[in-house]
Design a protein that fits this description.
It holds the Pfam family ADH_zinc_N. One of its GO terms (molecular function) is oxidoreductase activity, acting on NAD(P)H. This is Enoyl reductase (ER) domain-containing protein. The chain has two domains: 185 residues, Quinone Oxidoreductase, Chain A, domain 1, CATH 3.90.180.10; 130 residues, 3-Layer(aba) Sandwich (Rossmann fold). The strands form four sheets. Strands 3, 4, 5, 6, 7, 8, 17 and 18 form an eight-stranded mixed sheet that branches. A six-stranded parallel sheet has the order 11-10-9-12-13-14, with helices on both faces. Strands 1-2 form a two-stranded antiparallel sheet. The protein is 27% helix and 24% strand. The protein is α/β, with parallel strands linked by helices. The longest helix is centred in the C-terminal third of the chain and has 20 residues. Helix 1 packs across helix 9, helix 3 packs across helix 4 and helix 6 runs parallel beside helix 7. The model has no long low-confidence stretch (mean pLDDT 96).
């Protein structure tokens, strides 16, 4: 089999490896022709390639494929099942979705229905929707799609056109919230079609004040960008509205301006890899095993994600398909690095 390997900072190479074996509690998923085959790319992939991944580590997170082999103790999956998920690519040798076969924890894949295609399933496979699920339902005391909010409470998604933002808007709408978001004007109609009630310009310095005026009971926000002043914007929206609440971010933001709000509107980072239940190091931070994160995500994989996707209630991101397979993965990574992938998901058939 072939896999994409980080050889040095910013550089990758397609190399040959033995096909992995399914150990206890794991399955091996085939992600190459003539199986159902696709991978999806995320900003974290090029960031790992350029800054984080040690030489020799495999790259890639999201995938859709068919179960090739099943390890001991796995009873809910069998060879030929069509599944999707994500792995922590860019961290270790032997784990990455930019490969023809992928070894993955059996409890952290979800069965894909025939109602969606391979690339759509890979787009919904893991990083984007799982980050939204973790940030919203694991980190905040909010209602769920099966027990929705009865008051239509407002919720702010700063950066609605990101991959995570697109999923967060849908999940919040399903959970009964009035979804407020920021984006460029060209993406406003797409976000409204997914469930956003109001879309504000992310580049307007007065946007926090406008949001607070229009939604004075706003208490919670998700910042899907977490760069520059985005976290400050989300925090100020709540501060000027309800005066207290919480913001979840996807990166650490050390902006000094946040200090004046932290007692009433703290900004807390979350990182989706903790749902995999494995300790790992991140630049400047060591993350321990988080068994409760894993337990909750296992429940979502078994009960909720398959139904939400199959029913069309949770729609995959719009697809931007690239040709050339694993040998051309650099083109897609650089496309995302250049910031060209707003409101779309880069995918490849392998």
């Amino acid at each position: 089999m072939k896999a994409v390997v980080v050889t040095s900072k910013g550089r990758t190479e397609l190399q040959d490896f033995p096909v992995p074996e399914a150990s206890s509690g794991h399955v091996v998923v085939k992600v190459r022709h003539p199986s159902t085959t696709a991978i999806a790319l995320n900003p974290t992939d090029w960031k790992h390639r350029d800054f984080v991944a040690p030489p020799g580590s495999w790259l890639g997170c999201d995938f859709c494929g068919t179960v090739e082999s099943v390890g001991d103790g796995v009873s809910h999956l069998q060879k030929g099942d069509r599944v999707a998920a994500f792995v922590h690519g860019g961290q270790w040798p032997g784990e990455g979705s930019f490969a023809e076969y992928i070894k993955v924890q059996a409890s952290l894949v979800w069965k894909v229905s025939e109602t969606i295609g391979d690339e759509e399933a890979a787009a919904a496979g893991g990083i984007g929707p799982w980050t939204a699920i973790q940030a919203l339902f694991f980190r905040l005391p909010i209602d769920t799609p099966w027990n929705p909010n009865k008051e239509g409470e407002p919720f702010l998604v700063w950066g609605g056109a990101t991959s995570v933002g697109l999923y967060a808007i849908q999940l919040l709408k399903l959970s009964g919230y009035t979804v407020v978001t920021t984006a460029s004007e060209k993406n406003a109609e797409l976000l409204k079609s997914l469930g956003a009630t109001a879309v504000y310009s992310y580049s307007d310095k007065d946007t926090p004040a406008k949001i607070a005026k229009d939604y004075p009971t706003l208490r919670y926000a998700l910042d899907t960008i977490a760069e520059g002043k985005t976290t400050v914007g989300a925090v100020k929206s709540i501060w000027d509205a309800a005066g207290m609440g919480k913001v979840i971010t996807l990166l650490v933001n050390k902006d000094d301006e946040l200090k004046q709000y932290k007692d009433k509107v703290p900004a807390e980072m979350t990182l989706v890899y903790t749902v995999l239940g494995v300790a790992f190091d991140w630049p400047g931070v060591s993350f321990p095993e988080m068994p409760e994160d894993k337990r909750q995500m296992e429940e979502w994989c078994a009960k909720h994600i398959p139904e939400l996707v199959a029913s069309g209630k949770l729609k995959p991101n719009p697809i931007k398909s690239f040709d050339g397979g694993l040998a051309n993965i650099t083109e897609g990574l650089d496309y995302i690095k250049a910031g060209k992938n707003r409101a779309q998901k880069v995918t490849y058939k392998i």
